[in-house]
């Protein structure tokens, strides 16, 4: 019998196909008449097992391309300003037709090479989290902005069956309370992988479920293969830019704008 999550994922399969054909996330959102970002439902179901990460058990992984040392420097400065411990750099992946070999295959020709590379970089971060000395890791893309009111080392109780906990609920179109004992919510539909929390076990599950390869962007892949959860408040921000975005490395790598210089 197909559960609620499985049924919803089947319903959402067609919109992600539209994304692969070039529609923007906002266009797909409008076509679906999805609930506004920040909308959520209440839940009365029993609470799953919870685990509260302790500050000393949380590590940080920052995804960064070799071509972007200035972003790495900015992130290091931001960590100092927020009194956070040093992070481990995860080397980003610039995938190309003549590159490789890569950890897992690109399953469809419609998957743009920059999106495939981003997916491979997140897979690389999951592997770093799975072998980390820290039971929990916060994975961050190097263009994220840490928010001053967020406490990255004072985290709420986490349902242990969450594969990942997204840090930007303002980009989640539909979410649902899990139980009264935690502010963490189930997430059913949204976009963005700019920052999120994973446990070792959650990272291992995501690695296993990505072992066949990627057939879409990473922020589409997770909705079909993983138990996605979200914090109730934003922990990070990220610049908004209409696709194709002239400030995006992904746009430049995909060649979506003619004569576009490489962004900082």
Elements, N to C (H/E): HHEEEHEHEEEEEEEHHEEH
CATH topology: Spore Coat Polysaccharide Biosynthesis Protein SpsA, Chain A
Helix content percent band: 25-40%
Biggest beta sheet attributes: 9 strands, mixed
CATH architecture: Alpha-Beta Complex
- Residue ranges: pLDDT <50 for 5 or more in a row? 6-38
Shape: globular
Terminal Cα span? 49 Å
What is the gyration radius calculated from CA atoms?
18 Å
Produce a short descriptive summary.
The chain is of the alpha/beta class. Helix content is 30%, strand content 21%. The strands form three sheets. A nine-stranded mixed sheet has the order 1-9-10-12-8-11-5-3-4, sandwiched between helices. The chain has a two-stranded antiparallel sheet with strand order 2-7. The chain has a two-stranded antiparallel sheet with strand order 6-13.
Keywords:
alpha/beta, 264 residues, Spore Coat Polysaccharide Biosynthesis Protein SpsA, Chain A, 9-stranded mixed β-sheet, 7 helices, two-stranded antiparallel sheet
Summarize the structure in words:
This protein is α/β, with parallel strands linked by helices and 264 residues long. It has one domain (37-254): Alpha-Beta Complex (Spore Coat Polysaccharide Biosynthesis Protein SpsA, Chain A), CATH 3.90.550. The chain is built from 7 helices and 13 strands. It has helices spanning 4-20, 25-32, 69-81, 113-130, 200-209, 218-225, 249-254; strands at residues 40-41, 50-51, 58-64, 88-91, 136-141, 145-146, 158-159, 164-166, 172-179, 182-190, 195-199, 228-230, 236-237. Residues 6-38 have low confidence and may be disordered. This is Glycosyl transferase family 25 domain-containing protein. Residues 1-30 form the signal peptide.
